Automatic annotation (TrEMBL):
Keywords: Transferase
Protein name: CoA-transferase
GO terms of molecular function: CoA-transferase activity
SUPFAM superfamilies, sorted: CoA-transferase family III (CaiB/BaiF) (SSF89796)
Organism: Pseudomonas flexibilis
Length: 410
């Protein structure tokens, strides 16, 4: 029994933020019914290559992007632009605990699938809307995309090499972090609303916006601005508040040192053969090192060029100062620690029994995450869900198929 066993989620979202939220809830044991457009489905079904491979090594029609955010779900293909399709979604919402959607603000009202309409039908429904800019404000009705949000929300202004360094300029993060973080925050909001429902008997509307999340996630950087009135700049791989906390280049490759306090700095200097550095008043305290960043980083950078990264990492690791190499994704997934934590899981798929993906980081002692099914094929569970959850007969299902209202995987 999963932690959220008995909770039914109707997932009307697509692409990443909403599906990411739905996948987390599904991993935790909720029944997640994903509603997709007939013949097309979630936009990310077409976001390839790459595609999942068949056992013969050929490309399937299942995009890797879609696979990453939709495991443990049931796929029901319904055309919500039709009156019959809208009625099916309303019927499913009437028996659901949670609904997730990421349509533009106000656009579901014309279908009678907005929060106000569905909460009258099911007062206990927790309805989570995920948009770029939220349900209010001057940009509420605009679509929002992760790349734009990373720029507007300040993240790109502090990401990338600082001015004057080759390759300088604002950079987006290599993963759609605004989407992923919004999925995480939405999961928190939904679970909070479910707990509140236990006290009040009522569901509520969760209004989640990518821009809100991105601004909230600026953390210490936004507080640095509020404290000084100066916007932090780009520091490349360096830390704005801590020194040394960055990438260094050894004789053969780059590696990372994350020296978090003055005690660690003393240990670091002893380990690398520069015990005199902490005695220099310019470098004794972290605040001193921040003020004299260029000087101390210059000394360390020149010193690290005298040996290999593996040797430096070995010496620094021995004195318990955080240090490590920079893995590509292949090497990261092969890390012994990653494998020991069961972060790679096999979930047999109809088109590839050896299908693997990255698992959930949530480790619960009594209600562990279960991997019941891979990301579904488009409309794979239409008949099953509509017959068992809504009681539709085989004849009724065939009539809806003939009208183009629903679609079942053949």
């Amino acid at each position: 029994m999963g932690a959220l066993s008995g909770i039914r989620v109707l997932d009307l979202s697509r692409v990443l933020a909403g599906p990411w939220c739905g996948q987390i809830l599904a991993d935790l044991g909720a029944e997640v019914i994903k509603v997709e457009r007939p013949r097309v489905g979630d936009d990310t079904r077409g976001w390839g290559p790459p595609y999942m491979k068949t056992p013969e090594g050929e490309n399937s029609a299942e995009a890797s992007y879609y696979q990453s955010a939709n495991r443990n779900k049931l796929s029901v293909s319904i055309n919500i632009a039709t009156p019959e399709g809208q009625e099916l979604v309303r019927a499913l919402a009437a028996t659901s605990d949670v609904l997730i959607e990421n349509y533009k603000a106000g656009s579901l009202a014309k279908y009678g699938l907005d929060y106000e309409s569905l909460s009258k039908l099911n007062p206990r429904l927790v309805y989570c809307s995920i948009t770029g800019f939220g349900q209010t404000g001057p940009r509420a009705e605009e679509p929002g995309y992760d790349f734009i949000i990373q720029g507007m929300g300040g993240l790109m202004s502090i990401t990338g090499e600082k001015d004057g360094v080759p390759g300088a300029g604002p950079q987006k993060v290599g993963v759609a972090v605004a989407d992923v973080m919004t999925g995480l925050y939405s999961t928190i909001a939904i679970q909070a609303a479910l707990l509140a429902r236990e006290k009040t008997g009522r569901g509520q509307h969760c209004d989640m916006a990518l821009l809100d999340v991105q601004v909230a996630a600026l953390g210490n950087q936004s507080q640095n601005y509020l404290s000084t009135g100066r916007s932090p700049g780009r520091q490349g791989n360096a830390h704005v508040n801590i020194v040394p906390y960055q990438v260094f280049t050894a004789k053969d490759m780059d590696f990372i040192i994350a020296c978090g306090n003055d005690t660690q700095f003393v240990a670091l200097c002893d380990a690398i053969g520069l015990p005199e550095l902490p005695l220099d008043l310019r470098f004794t305290k972290n605040a001193d090192r921040v003020r004299n960043r260029d000087v101390i980083v210059g000394i360390l950078s020149e010193h690290f060029l005298t040996d290999t990264a593996d040797n430096w990492v070995s010496k620094i690791h021995a004195v318990k100062v955080p240090v490590g190499v920079i893995n590509d994704i292949g090497r990261a997934l092969a890390e012994p620690q990653v494998l020991a934590r069961d972060m790679l899981v096999n979930i047999p798929h109809a088109q590839n029994p050896d299908f693997r993906m990255v698992g959930s980081p949530v480790k619960l002692s009594d209600t562990p995450v279960e991997y019941k099914r891979p990301a579904p094929m488009l409309g794979e569970h239409t008949d099953e869900v509509l017959s068992t959850r809504l009681g539709l007969s085989a004849e009724a299902l065939e009539l809806l198929k003939d009208k183009g209202v629903i679609e079942q995987l053949k």
